[in-house]
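To close the chapter, one final illustration. This time we ask the reader to focus less on the individual chains and more on the assembly as a whole: which components sit near each other, and how the overall shape emerges from the parts.
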Amino acid sequence: MATSISYDEVEVGTELPARSFPVTRADLVRYAGASGDFNPIHWNERFAREVGLPDVIAHGMFTMAEAARVVTDWAGDPGAVVEYGVRFTKPVVVPDDGAGAVVEVSGKVAAKLDGRRVRVDLTATSAGQKVLGMSRAVVQLA
Amino acid sequence: MPLDPSFIGRSYPPTAPYEVGREKIREFADAVGDANPAYRDPEAAKALGHADVVAPPTFPFLVTYRAAAQVVEDPELGLDFTRVVHGDQRFAYTRPVRAGDRLSVTVSIDSIKSLAGNDILSVRGEVHEASGEHVVTAWMTLVARGTAGE
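The assembled structure is written out below.
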């Protein structure tokens, strides 16, 4: 691991730089191809509505990947992430309106653990709704 | 009908190895819009102490999700896939996935619960490199909406 963040310089409550991630239909098509998850609820509006969704929704794993960037951009080394988990609480609805959706992610150090590790709690919202719950990463610091 | 709880603890055979390519990692990083050089440039990854480019933290889902199809499509279990949503996801890493890894997944059913008419299934995937080295454990919860009450 080669993160530049020192455990000694981090306190409970330290905030990670927050990020806004725009999500368009094109992003979902690209993610479907890269991940192999071609569930039509992520690209076919007619299908999404037929199964009771308000519109096409983002892959939960896409949102989870975006939220992780707040941690990996902070740590520098993606290998510093030793645990990462989320609960998918609400879908990110992505309309075909030229703008799409925005996922806002913030994070802060919630606990200092043994072995120079910290637990980071993340908050992810879209259109004012919390889209991830229990979103936590354990990060190995220097 | 609720799912049969006797499936708790059942394990499935290890999957055929998935070979992780540098360009697949790059494609995945592009798809999530992440420009981190550790995902693209072997020298940048080496500077961080990795043997080759590493994959983003959620990349292992590509292999664990395919492996979990053994559970989802198990005719004896009888999960109604059309009603399944992804409830939660967690990873614990021994090390990051990196290019050149040949990953095999052993899937087990950790728990089956019925809650508010939903079947809730916890599936664990232990991901090992072909050398036998443990790389990551992934847990996913699948929620089959409305199937437990019928």
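The radius of gyration of chain B is 17 Å. The helical segments of chain B are 22-31, 42-47, 61-72. With these observations in hand, you are ready for the problems at the end of the chapter.
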